[in-house]
Amino acid sequence: MPTTNTDTMAKIITEKARITQRLAQAEVQVATLAGQLAAFDSVESMITGTGSRAPKKQTAIPALNTPSGVPKRGRPAKSTTTPKRARTPPDQSLSTFALQAVAQQPGRTTSQVTTYIKDRYGIPARPNHVGAALARHLKAGRLTSSGTKKNQLWYEPTAIPMQRTG
User: Fold this and answer.
1) Mean pLDDT across the chain
2) What's 135's domain CATH number?
3) 144 phi and psi angles, rounded to 5 deg
4) pLDDT tens for residues 13-29?
């Protein structure tokens, strides 16, 4: 004999009442355990001598809408409403960009090269990284420099004809 709609509805209502009652019992148990945890924390801080901490006040019972029925601990999940724009790596290296900046306008300082790279290519390059790249070019002979270490100006080497001896 098939069940009627009223029988089904009655079963649903009783099951809903049973689940609601169990949820209320779980909330009471969570509140009790939270109180015990606070008491244990205060006793632990007194024993270890980490200072007098005021016991944590629990203003409300957290909502139990996680799948397992237990509130999640730790860091909250990141919001997925506004995804971050993925940054694609540049086609060339920072070292190449630094060399191009000096070639574009010789006589730049390291901070001017850093600003040029940021404005032209959109790469937030750190000044010490740009300075290291310029120093590698200097060592390899692709750049020359003049001025003091603090106000060092960067140039492309000029083509000096080699003189033959003897």
Assistant:
1) 79
2) 1.10.10.10
3) -125, 160
4) 999 999 999 999 999 99
